[in-house]
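Dear Dr. H.,

I hope your travels went smoothly. While you were away I took the liberty of generating a structure for the chain from your last submission, since the lab meeting agenda had it listed for discussion. I wanted you to have the full record in hand beforehand rather than looking at slides cold. The sequence, exactly as received, is reproduced here:
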Amino acid sequence: MKITIKKRTTRQVLAIERVLTPESRTALQTLPKPNKVCGVRTPLNLNDLTIGDLFSLQADGVHALIEQIASVILKVHPRRCYNERADKMLGFVFWVGREFERIAALFASTSNQPTPEEIKAGINDLDFGPFGIIDWYAHRQGYQDQDDAAKVAWVRVCECMPYPTASPIGWRGFSMHRSSNQF
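The corresponding predicted structure, in token form, is as follows:
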């Protein structure tokens, strides 16, 4: 059964997502990024997001992820995205996923390898998640409050990471959402 999503809303496609064939799922992942979603022009990239916004996009499940993208990136009420055409909304969501892969690769390329002393002390067992990166940046830049550091553009934080004075712990395991990467 072939399903045309151009005439369907995001809500309708999410309602039938469990019965989508693998080919349909692959087709969804290759949808192009639209120029506008929910009446809002889409960004060229995610470089203008703060580190706090970037980490707030982590969500459990597809619905939570779509709602976070709507509120954080598009700055529209999260429920508004369900009435948007599915090809537009899902094209944008999968584009955000590709941007996350690009961003994660940039952060991974800046990570320093732990010293033998750090490995012996058990650094590989530590994972402070997003807070670890924000806390590391706050300490390095002299912020008294991590909330202030979370307001800095992620690009700036990434630029500071190649020359750390302390090990940036926590980027391991960062992904767009904690459930599977499948739709």
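Two observations you may find useful: The chain is about 50% helix and 0% strand. The mean pLDDT is 80.

With kind regards,
E. W.
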